[in-house]
Amino acid sequence: MKTKLTLGLFVAAVLTVAQPSRAQSFVRDGAIRFGDAAMQAYRLDCGDPPAAQPDSDPFKLRILKYAAVAMKHRLSGLASYYSTSLDGTLTANGERYRNKKVSAAHLTLPLGSWVEVTSRATGRKLRLRVNDRGPYVKKFAIDLSQAAAHFLGVDVADDRYVMIRIIGLPGEDPLPEDVLDGPKAAPAVEAVAATLSPAGR
What we know:
Elements: H1 2-18, H2 22-28, H3 36-43, H4 58-70, E1 76-81, E2 104-105, E3 114-119, E4 125-132, E5 140-144, H5 146-152, E6 161-168, H6 177-181, H7 185-196
Parallel strand pairs: 1-5, 2-4
Antiparallel strand pairs: 1-6, 2-5, 3-4, 3-6
Helix pairs in contact: 4-7
């Protein structure tokens, strides 16, 4: 009797080891399933550019990509400008800052990004490249070279508020002006607005 009981326990132990555990089988069989919306959140990353389609307009895809990048940065606020004494000093990317050249500093945008800055007071726009870090005073959104500030009028205007728009990332040429202000931009802007609205989330 004792031998049969020992043999029975041995056989039961072998069968238990040979079979996969119940928990693994439960998960592998898909007993827990997520809906399509939940799974889509794992497949997509808002920071990445949309996948190119054979008939996709490359400018539209770039506008969508820049909109996704823009959501991670401060792109409006007061503009400051460099002190005259900084002429000739090194910028964050190793270039020399020059008062009479057009450039800008931003705290978080990738160095080498192209931006279009628009003054609310004067309505003037200027396209320039970010080659430095700053401003480090919280109330300012961008630090302009003296030439850029003078062109936009923020060096004399009472209202120094500016809007900043990404028009190119490092290594890219800036988008043509007619693309940003023309009919091609509208569908991309609408698509981004849909993702930001409560219904689109």
